[in-house]
Structure formats: C-alpha cells, structure tokens
Amino acid sequence: MIRYIYNNQKSPPAPFVYVLLANPDGTKRLEQIPAQLDTGADQTVVPLELAVQLELVPIREKRVGGLCGEISALTSFLAQLAIHEPPFRALGGGSWAKVGGEGPVFWGFVHHNHQDRPMSPGGIRGERGASRFAGP
Amino acid sequence: MSEPITLPAPKLDWPPPENKWQRERRAFLKLYPQLLQTHRGKYVAIHEGRLVDSGEELVPLALRVYQRHGYVPIYMDLVTDEPQPPVRIPSPRLQWDKPAK
Fold first, then answer.
1. Which of A66, A113, A128 sits opposite B57 (nearest CB)?
2. With CB atoms 3.0 to 4.6 Å apart as the test, which of A17, A29, A36, B24 could cross-link to A22 if both were Cys?
3. Which helix (H) or strand (E) holds B59?
C-alpha cells in the first residue's frame, strides 16, 4: 500500500497523489502528475494545459457548480486516469490499450479549468458510466 | 483645432469560423426535436451532422464511436428535455487556491 504525506506547500496542507493521465487510446500520456484529491467533487478537473498536451477532443459541455453555487460551463473530455504505484509500466501495444498495469485504471470524464490550478481527481465516481470502468 | 476624421469601422473576422465540434453541436440542436421522439433518455453521438450511434451510457458510446470514426471531435450528449443538475465541484481550492507562503 502506498501512503502519501499531506502536501504542506498548500495552506492548509492538502492530500495529493501522483496520477497518470492519458488520452482514450493511450498513445499520449502524462505521468507523475501531482493531483489533489477532492472527495466532494462529482468529477475530475484538469488544467487546460494538460488537455491540450494530450490533444483531447471535446465531447460536450457540462454545467458545473462551485462552492458557493456559482454555475459555469466546462468542456468534457474522455480520458484515462490511473492512480498507481511507481514505477510506471509501459503502455501495451494495440489500440485502446489501458494504461498502467498494477493499479486501478479508470475511464472517465475530465473537465478542464481555465486557470492554473492543480489537477483535482475528485470525481472518479462521476458521471454515469464512468465509475464502472475500473480495471484492469 | 483640426477637424476630426471619421474612419470606417475596422473589419473583424466575426463571427469566428466554427470548428468541427461546434458544427456537430449545432447539428445536435437541429436534430434535437426529432431525437426527443426517437432517443429520449439516451446518449447520442453526432458526427458529420448526423446521428451515428446511441447508447444508455456515455463512456461505452464514446469508445465505440472513436473506434469506428477515429479520435476526432464528435458531439455526444444526453437527449432529454429535463434540466440536468450541475456537476458538483465544491472544492474551495478550485475557487480560491492560494500558494502557501
């Protein structure tokens, strides 16, 4: 079992884990992305920069409500997210390979935010269907 | 004081040209009344202006259409006329994240 110490670069200290984020077919991926756990969130939010780097294509827009109830629209993408144990495994061959190998892999939706915020993989349980794609 | 010179308004490239995903979304909205009759409560995928697939769940639908049509912008959404609750992302850090000093 992997345990992380709370990151005290944040005030107050916050729970972060390393994640792997990949496009749907796993041909583009970003490893060891520090991601802040947000257990109250329905879905995962990633900085726009990561979505751009992975060349994710949009699916739709969803209305998102923040802490004080303000509503904004964010773009949804399909991506693979893995919270897993280092060292990271190489991707398997073939199309639509799942990333990772040891740890859980999730298919799910991510939204991007426009600001320079940390990735926040809170809502893995998220949208209909997303929670059923735990693997391997 | 010299007389003011009135110039024509600068030309803008406006509205900006739509990208493929925006065109597909517009096609979805155009098809929406018909989809409500035939695909109410289902997720649909719109590619090149037409319905290419539908399903009960969005992730399997997305995987299918990307397999079949390639990883290109394809609009997918739920066909419903009921208001959908917003996704909750209530973390205060998303709103007011401040680096520690």
1. A128
2. A29
3. helix B58-69
